[in-house]
């Protein structure tokens, strides 16, 4: 199973020691980041929230069922994207909102 972390080099580099791929976003536009994720066939992609928000606004990759993209908080703390995404996925899966997640 291929796993990757996407974000600024300072944030993703430590994860390389875990044996996962890292995608550093310096000097890349959002389309280049999307292409790199799509072409590598990752099972799970952890994306720092600032990049996740840009991916979500600019592309449809966060909605694809074959790529599991998980937003994770950055240095400044959570902005709530992960919680919102889980709530949306649960609503889609079971057809109703689960209390306490939004």
The helix content is 25-40%
- The CATH architecture of the domain at 3-73 would be 3-Layer(aba) Sandwich
The SS-based structural class is: alpha/beta
Shape: globular
CA gyration radius, whole angstroms: 14 Å
Low-confidence stretches: none
Distance between the termini: 31 Å
- The spatial strand order of the largest sheet comes to 2-1-3-4
Task: Describe the SSE topology.
Layout: E1 3-7, H1 9-12, E2 21-24, H2 30-39, E3 44-48, H3 49-58, E4 68-72, H4 81-94
Parallel strand pairs: 1-2, 1-3, 3-4
Helix pairs in contact: 2-3
Question: What is the gist of this entry?
Answer:
The protein has helices at residues 9-12, 30-39, 49-58, 81-94, and strands spanning 3-7, 21-24, 44-48, 68-72.
Structural description of this entry:
The chain is of the alpha/beta class. It has a domain at 3-73: Rossmann fold (3-Layer(aba) Sandwich), CATH 3.40.50. The chain is built from four helices and four strands. The chain has helices at residues 9-12, 30-39, 49-58, 81-94; strands at 3-7, 21-24, 44-48, 68-72. A four-stranded parallel beta sheet has the order 2-1-3-4. Helix 2 (30-39) packs across helix 3. The chain starts with a strand and ends in an 8-residue tail after the last helix. The mean pLDDT is 84.
